[in-house]
Design goal:
By secondary structure, this protein is an all-alpha fold. Helices cover 84% and strands 0% of the residues. It is built from 11 helices and no strands. It is globular.
Length: 247
């Protein structure tokens, strides 16, 4: 716990500064105080937790699941085939050059206000770090160990599962930690542009009513979801990579 004391102290200081500035300018519809946001979050807890949070969580989890399957699958394919690498890698890089906020309305035109327009936005943002990190991990396996396995009569299957997969695991989890935080952003962007429920949708609706605290309340909840997902991935990483933790 001592490792987190500096971060906790900095957060407290920043919140106190925010509280003081918000109270001094007295423009709560633009810059609500942290205490005002906390009170609004408590006031709206049932609406946010039971009406809007499940919708956002569904988008995040479905988007992440698709990104993991798609990203790992493409990474493995590119690792096995130079043709696949030359075909997919430039497209994967190019997909990140298009501003998500610009292309998201197109998905809403295609899929309407259903959950899938938001899922596609989330996948577009999250599959990139998973794909690139996993691919780099597969490529990072030791050439010396590969040659040793070949001299011992190992085939491509044994080399892949006993050498490349263990080498790629730390890279995969690094990409996944980035992806889970981006998934929250992707879901919020999709809901902001067109939705009938969700934390992003609720925040946008409150903005039209000039209720600053109500705008910030779902954002705080979104941040909490991102932190929880990050911690879950860290725990899975710790359990999956016990050999690294013993060093």
């Amino acid at each position: 716990m001592k490792h987190y004391l500096p971060a906790a102290g900095l957060i407290v200081v920043l919140l106190l500064i925010w509280e003081a500035v918000a109270r001094s300018i007295n423009l709560l519809f633009i810059l609500p105080s942290p205490s005002g946001v906390a009170l609004k979050l408590w006031e709206l807890k049932e609406v946010l937790l039971f009406d809007h949070l499940p919708s956002t969580l569904a988008i995040i989890l479905i988007g992440l699941a698709i990104s993991i399957v798609l990203g790992v699958g493409i990474a493995v394919w590119m690792n096995m085939s130079k043709i696949a690498e030359r075909a997919f890698y430039p497209i994967i890089i190019s997909s990140q050059m298009i501003p998500t906020i610009a292309i998201a309305p197109i998905f809403i035109m295609w899929f309407g206000y259903s959950i899938w327009s938001k899922v596609v936005v989330t996948v577009l943002i999250t599959f990139f770090p998973i794909t690139v990190s996993t691919f780099d991990g597969l490529k990072s396996s030791s050439k010396e160990l590969r040659e040793l396995l070949l001299t011992m009569g190992a085939g491509k299957k044994e080399i892949f599962f006993k050498l490349q997969v263990p080498s790629a695991k730390p890279y995969f989890y690094s990409g996944l930690k980035v992806a889970v935080t981006l998934s929250v952003i992707g879901a919020a962007i999709g809901e902001w542009l067109g939705a009938q429920a969700g934390l992003g949708y609720f925040s946008r609706r409150m903005m039209t009513q000039f209720d600053g605290a109500a705008v910030f309340a779902p954002i705080v909840l979104l941040s909490t979801v991102g932190v929880v997902l990050f911690v879950v991935v860290k725990v899975l990483e710790h359990k999956s990579l016990k050999w690294r933790n013993m060093k």
